[in-house]
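step: validate -> pass
step: tokenize input -> pass
step: predict -> running
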Amino acid sequence: MDNSGNIIPSFPRFCTFSQKYVLRSVTEKFDVVIAGAGPAGATCALALQGSGLNVALVDKCQFPRDKICGDSIPGPALKILRKVLPNSPKEDLLPEDTNRIRSSTLLTSSGSRIDIHWKAEAYNCRRTSFDQFLLHLVRDHTDIHVYEADKIDEVIAGDQVTLHLETSGRSLECDLVIGCDGANSIISQTLGNNQSINPESCIALRAYYKDVGSPEETNVFHLLKNIPGYFWIFPLGGGVFNVGMGLRKNVSDAKINIKEAFRSAIEENAMIREKFNHATILSAIEGFKLPMGGYRGRISGQRFMLAGDAAGLIDPLQGHGIDKAMHSGMLAAQLAVRCFRHHDFSETFISGYDDSVEKSIGKELRRNYRIMQLLYRLPWMISLLAVVTTNKKVKDLLLKGFYIS
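step: predict -> pass
step: emit ->
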């Protein structure tokens, strides 16, 4: 009984239930659930605006959140964003804290260099800001239901797909799920038959530095002697740089301690060392894995599609994946609309997504993968390219398709 004389009901201890158990009795129904709110998922959500579909966007993190990468936003990523938001002013489709990149420089261990001037727009922007910006666009331009800080911990396939969320305990039921949830995608693991990512995955490190002696509008790549990878210096503006190193092989296969190699490159490589004479490190050195070159199998199936890192869509030569993620997210949205138009969620019908990705992205990734393998087997070719590309016509021909001049 409380102070007002009301009787307070009591329950025996054996009748209590955990919050998670009670909440899981609540099931919310959607047409489409997008797992992952990074560039692939956010672009997919934006591309579904006006479709009439009831869509949920779920991410395990609370935004803004960091995503370890090189922070490079290639020109094609901006083109995709303008396609999915064609009526928005161009200036509204770019975060404020971006740094325009007008060129790239590739330096070999012998001192040879290739300078590339970008024809298309290209920027560097911290992923903390860029991904938050994309999610703001989703909230501003769509009525999609966004669930942040709620990890998908179980996926059940049946007549529909049911996804259980760990934090809130709620269940989401949908006709179609689009996995944009990264290299360790639970959608891929549960619905994609545990397909393994291309073994040529890249292991990389990233740290932020201030006052590096490198140009403010140029992304610089250093090829390192006896190491199957490269060292990068990407300017973010205001004297801050994203600095990192990537290895094209699994660390255990390469028998290289990548953190030691990272520090050695700064301390022992003369061309790099001089750039860090007055530099100050601003962050921890953190590692991540990049699944390059795509899956060796399907990236779709009955009632599901995979996009972005979940499908391994990272350029093995240039090392970036944001533009591929956004492109694949848009393609997944387009196929999703067709699924509902034809009321067909079968593996056969959805395989049209694989065809679209192969035509738009896959051929380029495989070409760049072959080029990457050739350059690492025959490193002297970089020095040869540095010589022949001093001729602009030869350079334009060789670099055709890389969105550069």
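step: describe -> The chain is about 35% helix and 25% strand.
step: cleanup -> pass
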